[in-house]
Amino acid sequence: MLLGLLEREPSHGYDLKRDYDSYFGQGRPLRYSQVYATLSRLARDGKAVAGPAEQGAGPERRRYAITEAGIEDVHAWLSEPAPPEPNLQSELFAKVVIALLLRQPADRYLDTQRAAHLQRMRELTQLKQQGSTLDMLLADHSLYRLEADLRWIDHTAARLDAIAQAVGR
Amino acid sequence: MDRPHGGPPGRDRPGGGPVSARTGATGSGAVSGRPTRILEATGLMKAFGQTPALNGASMGLDRGEILAVMGPSGSGKSTLLHCLAGILTPDAGEVWFNGDRLDTMSDDRRSELRRDQFGFVFQSGQLVPELTAEENVALPLLLSGTRRGLAIAEARKWFGTLALDGLEGRRSGELSGGQAQRVALARGLVARPVVLFADEPTGSLDSVSGELVMNLLTTAARDRGTTVIVVTHDARVAAYADREVVVRDGKVRTLTGADA
Q1: Mutation test of the interface with chain A: which of B222, B223, B244, B253, choosing the one with the most A Cβ atoms within 10 A?
Q2: pTM of model > 0.90
Q3: pLDDT of A124 higher than 60
Q4: Which of B236, B241, B244 sits opposite A143 (nearest CB)?
Q5: Domain B35-253 -> CATH class
């Protein structure tokens, strides 16, 4: 992602960190040490080149620029799909199976989970209504994922008796 | 407080009534800050022939609250909405609206109440195709006897609020699904209802249009203190509400138990 930001224009580590935090930080800002370690690695691998050290107070200041190899990397990354995460062994699934095995009320667990999911969806919807366009985009991503879980929860709740039989109760 | 001809506040001032009534929940009577129950149903039973739709459904709603009613198809959620709105009469159980018992009211009084106090939005607009958009919006006002000019002027105010500028003269066939649904929403809100009943209000819309409708619906309702019940099977729609209940097998379940 840093390399992607660097493709826009040659930048100082400070600028990259600021832009990363603004687009992707979401309350978890990058540390300067991470930024400079990444830039050094990119320079070592020929994906970026460092300009001369600049005069000024404070720590080392160098402007980094992306190389042709770096640009190729960014474009290859953009053209590849991210791996779909099937979450075949999600915690939700495990809790339902274990509850059924232990003859615990799986329907009650599913109701509790459903309420927690909807509560989170309400918070994200508020964020969407008050936040910036990027906040909306990010909130939507989470909302659709939570919605998918909820559909699974409803589907499972409707078939709980059959599932209990399959689990061997 | 200690003014010369003040007297006991509110006792010899007939004008005081409406003011405190307008401030509503917190103004008159009850404990300050405590919301008022506006709509309450207990033990509702309703069957269509041999098929039970409601089987002891109970729920309550506070003034100004936005509630989502969820549940699988055939769970009874629309039947519940129709009983709460006085469209259907339950076989047993009680429905109370603002201190009046709805299920035993005469048909005439109930129609009047539906017209004056309730607003409705259904899945697909249900606009009158022969009328223009603004005439459709003005319809509830015209039906309750407002002069045409005044009703149309009132209706037009909603076109800006609901991002419908310039569509006042269109007929429903000339509107997109999202626009028609926003016209229906304006019609549901134009008479400033105390409760807005919405049955799958985004059911026929794509996700972007549906989001716009829900945004406008909840913003308009919160700005005006309108109480809203939204029946939906869509969790992203339900997430616009303050809380949700789930109807299962004709009974209402509050999943968190927080509002018992």
Answers
A1: B244
A2: no
A3: yes
A4: B236
A5: alpha beta
